[in-house]
Specification:
Blueprint lengths: L2 H4 L7 E4 L2 E4 L2 E2 L3 E5 L9 H10 L4 E5 L2 H4 L15 H10 L3 E5 L15 H4 L10 H19 L9 E5 L11 H13 L5 E6 L3 H7 L5 E6 L3 H11 L6 E6 L10 E3 L2 H12 L4 E8 L10 E4 L2 E4 L18 H9 L18 E4 L1 E5 H8 L4 E3 L14 E6 L6 E7 L2 E2 L1 E6 L2 E6 L5 E6 L6 E6 L15 E2 L3 E3 L2 E2 L3 E6 L6 H9 L9 H6 L9 E9 L5 E4 L5 E6 L2 E7 L7 E3 L7 E9 L6 E5 L7 E3 L6
Parallel strand pairs: 4-5, 4-12, 5-6, 6-7, 7-8, 8-9, 9-10, 10-12, 11-36
Antiparallel strand pairs: 1-2, 2-3, 13-14, 15-35, 16-29, 17-28, 18-24, 18-28, 19-23, 19-26, 20-25, 21-22, 21-24, 26-27, 29-34, 30-33, 30-35, 31-32, 31-34
Helix pairs in contact: 6-7, 10-11, 12-13
């Protein structure tokens, strides 16, 4: 079958016949690499595109993250600045490469909520289905997005040569009406290039995720020959296309750093591209889960939050460095031209800078937080319209004399509990009971609930966040709560200044001194600041030895989360976030403040563990 026919036009750049892809009638292989505009600073887009071109690729593929463009329903999607996906696509074309776009609406990608906006998943709606409540919202989003992509197709002189329908849907469901709706939604809004689905190479996944008359690509990390045989049996006329080849893997907090040996990755790559096979290396350059955009997995009821780095052991590392995997893959791909880019971007020299305490945790958070919602029960993130960050819940129960059980039912994902300003402990799944001592008086009960990342894959997609169940003193439910949203991802430099000015810390007082004086409980944390003086801005890697868990801002930009449970020990700070002269690094520490910020000249992503994803 000619791909152009199923794509709705006879002028598609990519077609197939006789199990071979053609580009404008010439035999062709897609040699692509994953590069997500939302994980790379816009000032570095062109540099990273060139690095992938030097790898020997002829195509770049990117997801489009709906929630990145439209985090709030009451505001139109944004396509400017970092969200200017059209500019990114044009840059790829200017560098002589094709583009494959994967608009979802669901993208997985280890991205918060799989790219779906939390304002949509907050509703009673059947996600990723033909439920009109879901497709109507997706339709409105596609009305904004798809015409922009259609204007950049190869048929009108742009670089886009293919568009994916949904994303690995066979790993999730079997609603064929939804897949057909998705295909028609793309075609009716102007997509005329090659359309394809992508699923794991199993009967179960291909049964649920493919469409008759539409190219069926596969995703895999190993065993390409078995996948090729399965595809040939099911789709004998179609070319073998691997829409994602997992040459590395992502990391969760508290686990080891996943790597994949060069020889293993190259052998699988060679198996894919043999006999005319096409491939997209996922990831060719991973980038960073800046802010609070990192997603999470869920296994047997246990949340597995993804780290800030999305290095993914890719051939082009998180900071753009060319790895041994880069050079080996380049050889396997048959690249012959010179490597134009540097082996490694410039870095700042190592340094140690004092962290100066600025404010206590709760005073700093209270100083910036939005107006509270007052209700009988604690309000969830969704009820407050909060995508990520924290909620401070406050109630005033009377606690009888003596020791009592304080039980928090269904915490998603972590809660710090205070009574009259005294820290009682941390609650979460599997740790729901704390002890509280009463005198018979009314107390001020404060619970700081934190999201560690929204689930991006599987049946847990769209789960709500916050303090979802009741709070009990013994068997009695605590009622009458003020719930205050703390939208850390939306904080401006002015908000940070307000937070760091709150509290009673003396100017110039160090974190360690605050601890020694008993003014900052180890579990209470607080705000601290370091001033980093820079000559010529360059990349650096920030570390917080002695600190426990929290967030880092650089000149008002939320870099991401750090956590001493690892594996990641440094945060990549790209050069465009820095400026000549003084740079403010603000730290929100939640558990155990350290007293120093280190600038390192190398990343430290943790003890490695070989990992190769396989389908049984």
């Amino acid at each position: 079958m000619e791909a152009g026919v199923e794509a709705g036009t006879a002028t598609s750049a990519l077609t197939w016949r006789g199990r071979r892809l053609h580009r404008h009638g010439v035999p062709h292989r897609i040699l692509s690499g994953g590069l997500h505009y939302f994980r790379v600073h816009p000032d570095l887009w062109r540099d990273r595109i060139r690095r992938l071109a030097d790898l020997g690729l002829n195509t770049i593929d990117t997801y489009v993250a709906w929630n990145f463009h439209q985090p709030r329903e009451d505001a139109a999607p944004r396509f400017d600045g970092w969200r200017d996906v059209e500019r990114f696509i044009r840059l790829v074309g200017e560098e002589g490469l094709d583009v494959v776009v994967r608009p979802g609406p669901y993208i997985c990608a280890e991205w918060s909520n799989g790219g779906l906006p939390s304002w949509l998943t907050a509703r009673d709606v059947a996600l990723r289905s033909s439920d009109p409540a879901f497709t109507a919202a997706v339709g409105r989003w596609f009305d904004e997005l798809i015409p922009r992509l259609a204007a950049l197709q190869a048929g009108v002189g742009g670089p886009i040569v293919a568009v994916q329908i949904e994303n690995e849907f066979g790993s999730y469901g079997d609603d064929q009406a939804y897949l057909r709706w998705n295909r028609e939604a793309l075609i009716s809004r102007g997509i005329g290039e090659l359309l394809f689905t992508a699923d794991g190479p199993t009967e179960l996944m291909l049964d649920g995720g493919t469409l008759p008359g539409t190219l069926a690509a596969v995703t895999l990390g190993s065993k390409p020959a078995a996948a090729r045989r399965l595809q040939a049996a099911r789709r004998p006329d179609e070319p073998f296309v691997v829409a994602e080849f997992w040459n590395g893997w992502f990391d969760h907090w508290g686990e080891r750093h996943h790597v994949r040996g060069v020889d293993s990755a190259v052998r699988t790559l060679e198996g894919i591209i043999a006999d005319g096979g096409s491939v997209s290396v996922y990831m060719a350059h991973g980038g960073t889960n800046f802010g609070l955009w990192a997603g999470a997995n869920e296994h047997e009821g246990r949340l597995q939050p993804t780290v800030t780095s999305y290095d993914s052991d890719a051939p082009v590392a998180e900071d753009g460095s060319l790895t041994p995997k880069f050079h080996a893959m380049r050889a396997a791909l048959g690249a012959r031209g010179p490597v134009r880019v540097s082996e490694r971007p410039p870095v700042l020299p190592p340094a140690r800078v004092p962290l100066v305490r600025r404010a206590g945790l709760l005073p700093g958070l209270r100083a910036v937080s939005a107006p509270a919602t007052v209700e009988p029960r604690p309000a969830s993130f969704e009820r407050l319209g909060l995508d990520a960050g924290m909620v401070l819940h406050t109630a005033h129960p009377r606690v009888p004399k003596g020791e009592h059980r304080l039980t928090l039912i269904d915490v998603r994902d972590r809660a710090m509990v205070y009574c009259d300003g005294t820290f009682l402990g941390v609650a979460g799944p599997g740790l729901s009971e704390l002890s509280v001592r009463g005198t018979g008086a009314v107390v001020r009960l404060e619970i700081l609930a934190e999201s560690l990342g929204r689930v991006n894959y599987g049946p847990g997609l769209g789960r709500h966040k916050g303090l979802l169940g009741p709070v009990l003193i013994d068997r009695r439910i605590v009622q009458g709560w003020e719930s205050t949203p703390i939208a850390l991802q939306e904080w401006t430099p002015a908000d940070l200044a307000t937070a760091t000015a709150a509290g009673e810390a003396a100017a110039g007082e160090s974190v360690a001194a605050g601890l020694a004086a008993g003014e900052l409980a180890p579990a209470g944390g607080g705000f601290a600041e370091a001033i980093v003086r820079v000559g010529t801005p360059a990349d650096t890697f920030l570390a917080l030895p002695g600190s426990g868990r929290g967030l880092v801002w650089v000149n008002g930009f939320l870099l991401g989360r750090y956590w001493d449970i690892g594996p990641q020990a440094t945060l990549y700070c790209p050069a465009p976030l820095l400026r000549e002269g003084d740079n403010a690094v603000t730290v929100l520490e939640l558990e155990r403040p350290g007293d120093v910020l280190e600038l390192r000249d190398r990343p430290e992503l943790g003890p490695p563990e070989e990992y190769v994803e396989e389908f049984d």
